[in-house]
Amino acid sequence: MHQHTINVLEFEKIRSELLEYCISENGRHAVSLQGFYYSQSALEPLQLKVEQAREFMEREEFPSFEFPELESELRELSTEGTVLEGEELIRFARYFNSAHRLSAYLRAAAEYGYQDISAHSEQIGDFRESAKAITAVLNPDGSVKDSHPELRKQRAHMARLRNELNRAAQSYLQQNSDRWQSDVPTQRDGRIVLPLKAQYQNMVSGVIHYSSARGATVYIEPPELMTKNNDIALVEQEIREIILSILRDLTRAVASRRTEIEQLTEAVTEIDSFICRAAYARLHNCVRANYRERGFKLKRARHPLLRESAVPIDIETSQDIQSLIISGPNAGGKTVTLKTVGLLSLMNQFGLQIPADEGTELAVFNGIYADIGDEQSIEGSLSTFSGHMTKIGEMLEHADVHALALLDELGSGTDPGEGATLAMAVLDEFLKRGATTLATSHHGLLKNYGYTTPRVQNASMDFDTSTLTPNYKVVVGLPGESHALDIAARSGLPGNVIEAARGYLSSESGQVSEMIKELERRQTEFKRHEESLKQREGSLHEQIKEHDLAALRLRQREHQLKQSGYGELNKFLREARQELENLVHQLKSGGNVSKEDTKRVKEFIRTVEKREKQEKEQVEQEEIEFASSDTYEFSPGMQVITGPGRRRGTIIRRAKQGYWLVEVGAMKITLPESDLMPAESSEQKQKQSTPRYGYTSDSGTEPAAFSLDVRGERLEEALDRVNRQLDNATLANLYEFEIIHGKGEGILQTGVQRLLQDSPQVEEFYFSRPEQGGTGKTIVKLKH
Length: 784
What we know:
Structural class: alpha/beta
Oligomer: single chain
Radius of gyration: 44 Å
Shape: flat
Number of strands: 23
Strand content: 15-25%
């Protein structure tokens, strides 16, 4: 990618922020050196991992890690006989423990179907035993623990010697106290010495180590203190040798796995590359840009460096448009639009998600070239115009069918007539080379060029003519007026100057201005007509939907009637069979029955059973047809019901074959089609479906009934049954039923009626007083 473009579009500011989300020093270093991708096949694997990592972070909290820099330590380990310091070994232990946590986190992603990132857990080796061996011996600061068996004895011996030394020093200071400058001993080179007044130095035996600056005090080590100091020095040496031996053993163990550790750091670095991108995407509310063969389509795209002040823009080059010319007033947002398109394209090809809405599409360019800003150079003897031409010349050398060229104020900085003709020639050349071009200009000739040239389209920045302020929105298909005189007048330029300027405007310019205004009026009318067509289309769609639902209801009703008829037939068969058997028995008892009579009776029974079988098979076949008809066509924006929890969500886009990215609450989840059902279809099913032999609840515990008897039950059991009855009755379209609870105003009746009073499903209820010898009941009517 051209370095000038990277600098002009300020991509390095994005990279610097991205580095803050890295979890390892190696990852931070790698991301700081990473380049751009120039093909969709190379870019897509990283995009997929970033997408999966972001979704997983939204479902499972991302743990904290500590991956310190190990490069210098690993380099030391390559030298035979190296012994690492305790602090260096502790860094390895922290790295190993963090690697284990990272592996466990990624492994859990497989449960949600994020196989691409979960597979990276297999690249992380198991270093738990190595970490345990280090932390069992060393403290967090790298010092050897006092509990180490080899050190415990020596350090206890050291403590005893120091106590003896302190007692001996105090004994000296308390005797002939007038000889000492202080009653506190002093340390010199790790040895205890005493502050003796200089005039008494010949009266106390010992080695004088040094004297004070004025010579008034000498620091002496008496023989008894010398012996104890020597004993302490020997024990300290033994402790140092023990510590060295411990560190040598730990270093040797770590060095034996040096190759594995290098592989571990490479694996963590690779994981860090998509983890940091996912964290950035979460914070900035970014989306993955869909791939398109050429050009771009940005939906509510925001410039990431403008933060909250960024105004979302919508801009698109259709497949048959190669060059887009944006015109409009100064400070209207033209340059920001150019930079937004360029920077978001760079971010996309760096594997980043971009701050825009779903449905955004970007091509993968083999080069992005920008001529934005003033290229004037005093040292290089370049004027503003010369600077622009030099840069455009370099762009034309490299531009091809896969390039994106961003040209700000094309043709400016020189004679307007010559500048406009030169700008058209430049755009012609980019068209020949097949490059996608986005240019801004004030030239009227370029606006005409946008209308008359194939594969070129005009666009403008929306401007409020009543307030003379920009709206910072792109209007594709219309050129924009500069409004220079209006803005100049509003900015305080004298009125006579403005009027004189208007007088200088040529009739040709006026005609162009009128043409633009007429086009704006037609554009407004077209939008109004388009909205009207959408409303009609929506109305027609609703009518078709209602027609389909009505047809479905008719089929369901027909099916229910056949089921009902089959049930009645079944009842008839049972009664007929019993009646015929009784008849045969009576005939046999009378002794007047013949074999022919019995045969005819049995033949009648078989005929009726055959009819029953035919009816049953027909009903079952219809049930199969109904079950197989539950196939749905999903599309972005569709409201769906997801999973066993039956949560409502919105389809964002297709993720892969058989899967959709669905927004459920604040989360975006990739789900298989088998877990989805259109929300409207689900609601219709709940309202319209009737089971074969009456409605049964999901739990399968109790069907909805016209009469619910709770007499003799405990209050909790009765209320639980009433709750289930309310749910099941609603789904079974049973809008009126009775609850039998016994005579009088007892606790059971009171509890049931309080529950009904609080239920949103109940329209009204009333208590039916029992007749003589009867029982009390409550009649319930549900809302339709």
